[in-house]
Amino acid sequence: MPVLRGAGDGMTENTLDQLITAALRAQHEAREAQHPRDHSVFHDSSANSCLRKRVLIRSGAEVAAPQADDLRNFEFGHMIHGLIQRALLAIGAIPIVNGVALLERTLTDAETSGTFDCLVKLNGSGYTLMDIKTCSVFAFQHLKEEGAKPGHMQQVCRYWLKLKGLYPIHDVQIYYIEKDKGFTRDFVIPMTEGLIRETTADLTAEQEAWGALPTLPPRIAAGSPDAWQCHFCSVYEACGEREKISKFSPTFDRATMLAFKKGGAQ
Ligand code: SF4
Question: Among positive and negative, which fits the CA dihedral 150, 262, 251, 229?
Fold first, then answer.
């Protein structure tokens, strides 16, 4: 039976929502204990995100516990990833090399770590490197208008840079799934000189920021197009914000709300 957090703070009965949140939290913590995240390096999934946040996490800042909606989103993402990976594995579409399926493999070097979703046998010779993203209906609409998110493109480019010498990779794709109706959209991400240059510049920026400690990179300025990231930030206290900015706050204006919705793919 999961232990309910927050019991005793005026609540005499547990609601169904509290019970489910406690159950999801227990599951999340068990998974974290089984596969602890390595905070001694930067993570490829953080490509192109707030540098200050990346440096804070790597330097051991306290990370806020996920809220109930975060937990539901994590579980939804895990569920979709597992569902697709198991289905592809069952039909033999995921290569197995030396008895090991090429999915959920962690690639590390001295400074970075990243876990790619899977390689897929799709177009004859070579493999497709595929990354799966679940997203809100708003983020999905944004994708239709503006294409894959730059951070996601840099993330898969980082995986590709690590994998290209190991496996014959034919192409790289991001497969987005919208969480409301299950609509999908896949983007082929060409590994162009421009994308490689941007990705490499971001990797260099990480290293320079790390080398410049204890001076932290600046905060994202309020009102900037990137300010939506602060609404998802797990180290907002260490950053110097007193509390996580709420999307229900009066300062959360329409422009920020639109940017927030666009940024909602995970
Ligand atoms: S609160 Fe915003 S500026 Fe501060 S670390 Fe988080 S994302 Fe970066």
Answer: negative
Q: What is the pLDDT of residues 13-29, one digit of tens each?
A: 679 989 999 999 999 99
Q: Is 235 in the pocket of ligand 1 (CB under 6 A)?
A: yes
Which DSSP helix (H) or strand (E) runs through 174?
A: strand 169-178
47-53 average pLDDT score: 96
Q: Which atom of ligand 1 is nearest to the CA of 53?
A: 5
- Atom 4 of ligand 1: nearest residue by CA position: 239
- Taking alpha carbons only, the member of 98, 92, 149 closest to residue 119 is 92
The residue whose two tokens read 């208008």 is 145
Report CA(219)–ligand 1 centroid distance (Å): 6
The whole-angstrom separation of Cα 71 and Cα 44 is: 21
The closest-lying atom of ligand 1 relative to the alpha carbon of residue 56 is 5
Query: 32, 24 in Cβ contact below 8 A?
Result: no
Q: How do the domains of the chain map onto residue ranges?
A: 39-215
pTM for the model stands at 0.85
Q: What topology is assigned to 39-215 in CATH?
A: Lambda Exonuclease; Chain A (3.90.320)
Q: What does the pLDDT look like over 217-249, one tens digit per residue?
A: 999 988 788 888 888 888 988 898 655 555 445
Give the amino acid at 59. Answer: S
